From TrEMBL:
Lineage: superkingdom: Bacteria
Domain HTH lysR-type positions: 5-62
InterPro entries linked to this entry: LysR-type_TF_proteobact-type, LysR_HTH_N, LysR_subst-bd, WH-like_DNA-bd_sf, WH_DNA-bd_sf
UniProtKB keywords: DNA-binding, Transcription, Transcription regulation
One Pfam family linked to the record: HTH_1
Record family assignment: Belongs to the LysR transcriptional regulatory family.
Lineage: Bacteria, Pseudomonadati, Pseudomonadota, Gammaproteobacteria, Oceanospirillales
Xref: CDD domains: PBP2_GcdR_TrpI_HvrB_AmpR_like
One of the GO BP terms on file: DNA-templated transcription
Coiled-coil annotated spans: none
Organism: Marinobacterium nitratireducens
Name the record gives this protein: LysR family transcriptional regulator
Amino acid sequence: MRRMPPLKALRTFEAAGRLESLKKAADELHVTTGAVSQQIKLLEEFIGVDLFKRMNKSVRLTEAGREALPFVEEAFELLNQAVIKAQEFGNQKLITVSVAPSFGAKWLLPRLELFRRGHPDIDLRVDASTRLVDFSLEDVDLAIRYGPPKERGLHLELLTDEELFPVCSPRLLERGHRFAHPSDLAGQTLLHFEGRADDRDFPGWNQWLSAAGVAGVEVVNGPRFSMSSMVLQAAMDGQGIALGSSVLAADDLRAGRLVRLFEISVRAKHNYYLICTRNTFNRPDIQRFVRWIKAEMGGDRDESSDRRG
């Protein structure tokens, strides 16, 4: 059998040829432009033919490169289909999902048993992290992130938007506190979330009170937290009133650990996305997980719009 060139070099050639850009190929492969150039040079030396013409600020496929590219693209597609077919014979499948710690604790973990009952042949491995995932190097299949998406050359699946509204422990109501109007928040301890550093426009108490048409409520003081899960826990402990997320507070509202005080809500600027490679998205087990999580999030959104304390 004829000796084959390195698979990494072929993958780099396919990306650079398809995108007609070394920089765009580097972004898609999550490597540097220099690394792309090095892999292409390695491939050209291996086969003894130039595949690209180097311009001042761009590259262009040579005649040899144009002839070879469709066969390389087809080869990678066949490899992908072979992997998918082989995976279908596995009795137990494993999906590794990277999620932010608060999303994992407040949304995904309470639903793991529900997912397992409906999909007993799929195990989930949960990786709690907010880092940018390098799917080419890390053992991660999917990432769920609050936008805006930073990844390029990947499949993005919109999951849900996010709304914020006041929530508190039912114990506050049992103590005689009454919240007939948003102005009744005056004098209450307001809990603050300061963790969305990548979204400076993320709604806080000022935005919600403005939407409610209320002035004169003091919003400077009050405990501050870097994680959404901590804000919600403080509210459940009766320490004050939080702006609950339609996503992260859904399970606590359903269980009665939190109560929604008013129908008025403010919408976050960005959305939640599921992120993975295009090849991974085509896997049957991934498709089943995506259908499940979108259905669950759709149900949460419908319930939160109907629920009021």
